Amino acid sequence: MRKSTKLALAFVALAGPVGTTAYAENNAGAKMREGMMLRLNKAVKDSDGTITFDQFSDVMNARLKKMVADNGGKLTVAQLADALEKERFEQMAKRIIARYDTKGDGMLTTDDITGREKKNFAMLDRNNDGKIEKNELPKGGRMGGHRQWGGGNGSMQ
């Protein structure tokens, strides 16, 4: 195997985790590989079927290189952690807004929250008596196994 090929493979092994690990919540490895392959396939398609190492490098770590450049050519652990945390929480915020936003305007209001709560309450109140009893809660899963609802020990707290 040529030295340049070995170098490129080593770079892939390091670049994927550095560039995307903090952004994936579930199936981190699969999501990293999928994202990496999408970026590489796009780069190859945009470049007549081949890419150079420089093009590969730009595709793999453009955001990371921008962070380094934006910080005077050096990036500390704290700066990188702050940037990764900010992006992670922005993604979480987008998912929450999308889940609750009833008008589709990208804004969250108390009416949106109350509407979602009413919908969830109605789904849990299987006998429509305006109360949720323990036997109406799902078994296991997020709510059924939660300590607040007894957590499997047979009593509500």
Describe the structure.
- It is elongated, with a radius of gyration of 23 Å.
- The chain contains 6 helices and no strands.
- Mean pLDDT is about 75; it is low at about 5-10, about 15-25 and about 145-155.
- It has a domain at about 1-75.
- The protein has about 160 residues and is mainly α.
- One of its GO terms (molecular function) is calcium ion binding.
- This is EF-hand domain-containing protein.
Averaged pLDDT, please? 77
Secondary-structure element sequence?
A: HHHHHH
The end-to-end distance, rounded to whole angstroms, is 64 Å
Unreliable spans are: 7-12, 14-25, 144-157
What general form does the structure show?
Answer: elongated
* Quaternary structure state of the chains depicted: single chain
Q: How many helices does DSSP assign?
A: 6
What share of residues is helical?
A: 55-70%
Q: Which structural class do the helices and strands define?
A: mainly alpha
Biggest beta sheet summary: none
Spatial extent as radius of gyration: 23 Å
The beta-strand count equals 0
Strand content: under 5%
What attributes characterize this protein structure?
mainly alpha, 62% helix, 0% strand, 6 helices, 157 residues
What secondary-structure arrangement, pairings included, does this model have?
Elements lengths: L2 H18 L7 H19 L6 H18 L6 H24 L9 H15 L16 H4 L13
Give a quick rundown of the structure.
This protein has 6 helices and no strands.
